[in-house]
Amino acid sequence: MSPATETAFTRSEMMIVAAARELAGQRVCFVGVGLPNIAVNLAARTVAPELQLVYESGVFGARPARLPLSIGDPTIVTGAIAVTSMLELFGYYLQRGLVDVGFLGAAQIDRFGNINTTVIGDYATPRTRLPGSGGACEIAINARQVFVIMRQSSRSFVERIDFRTSPGNLGGAEAAARTRREQGWMGSGPSLVVTDLGIYHFDADGEMRLDSLHPGATLEQVRDSMGWEVRVAADLADTPPPSAEELRLIREELDPTGDHRG
Amino acid sequence: MIAAVSSSASKVATMRDAIAGLVRDGDTVAIEGFTHLICFAAGHEIIRQGRRDLTLARMTPDLVYDQMVAAGVARKLVFSWLGNPGVGGLHAIRRVTEGEAPTLELEEYSHFGMVGRYTAGAMNLPFFPLRSYFETDLPTANPLIRPIRSPYGEELVYAVPPLRPDVAIIHAQQADAAGDTRIWGLVGCQKEAAFAAERVIVVVEELVDEAVIRADPDRTVIPGLIVDAVVVEPFGAHPSYAQGYYDRDNRHYVEWDAISRDPDTLEAWLRDHVLGVPDRAAYMELLGAEARERIRPSGSAPSGEVDYGRYA
Known about the structure:
By secondary structure, chain A is an alpha/beta fold. Chain A has 8 helices and 14 strands. Chain A is globular, with a radius of gyration of 18 Å. Chain B is α/β, with parallel strands linked by helices. Chain B has 12 helices and 13 strands. In chain B, strands 1, 2, 3, 4, 5, 9, 10, 11, 12 and 13 form a 10-stranded mixed sheet that branches. The N and C termini of chain B lie close together (8 Å). Chains A and B meet through helix 4, strand 9 and helix 5 of A and helix 5 and helix 6 of B.
């Protein structure tokens, strides 16, 4: 790889682009706050022009004219297919099983894709009080599949999460599949994790597996930023770098102020 | 033909009188609005009047609850997502909820759980069932989230209890003097919170005639039947927004991060922008014309019209 390619984009831009590409072919995506918001809006402008954007604030089929500043921005309302009450959005759209992909961020994740967004430390006397579930708990249970986008570090990729806010593959795929079947959940759990270093899917036993390394990232960096021994695909791929058009869309249309790219 | 029944007497009140008459120490107060239509004006008036020991319910405690907690009006939060949306944390709330001896009580749910709680409250039901919470730590953190078995099979679902605020404060674009209230754009759980509450204060950008309400009844979210006071307060939702009237003042959300990190800076902000002004009009005056210009929508996007037809 030429040095020019390595310096032409940031790790965050690579992460956003890799996540957006994974939405090719999906129909209905529930957009989480933060990084998912920019990744999904990039997908809607590139690989998934037919994608219906669902926002938990009560919007189906949003067509935002600017990058929404939050998941309740007025730009997601103007020109949308439908505005619903939150009761309808969570009940009729999500719990009913109409959402193909739930796109989440996380503060901590474990090898089975269980997620913590509630506290760091003990619940009653936390070191850090995080936002809490929001809609994440029900998205993890009811979306047909769950994508996660987050920066990777030894503090965020941990052997044991401090609090389970949103269930992933629980303690392994077999038990998780049985629980999901017996309880009548619509979702099949996490299927993808995209970080600033690479792309992970989940093995048959429910554990995260590194399938692709981003340009410039090394296996050593991956190992140094995980609390467990990483499982690596036999045919580990190189993530194709962002195209000029993907970078233009992020820099000029979606994030002109650079808030998400650092 | 049934003669039109004219609405009951006007419920229009000043913010000061509405809060003085309807919000009491120790109440559970829900200032709802999901990103959209958050009534900061009411929160500030509650601070000015020095209410104490409130339980503040809201799906997304954001800046307004950070300010109210910092001002000492709250004993407890009931919520599902705690943060400065799109920016980061709420530092006044973090200071009293982190570490060895938190002083603010927390009772937390997920978004659907909070919506379900308001819905059960609004419908006079003993609980609301949902598929969330299974295999999570939330029922341990909050023992009011309880599993129940379906009476028609083996499935387990979780139940959340009804939430019945003493007062719901609902910001909206328009209402008539009787409290018949129109909202467009995100409606959040404004309707559920209003029907669940014992008392309802509606705060609007604009007062309209009853004829405006009757011309488009699909748009009525809350009927005057359950409304106790109507407060006309332009820009009452700033720095949040009112669809079609003004945009979110994002600069303020970003600035709040720095203001709220330092208790002294925060106290000075409250002194200047809340305690030091008599009402919302004075607050907007303080922000100046530049702020009003900054949050003006970039253009107009009127709805199409529908024809309801006449059926005499």
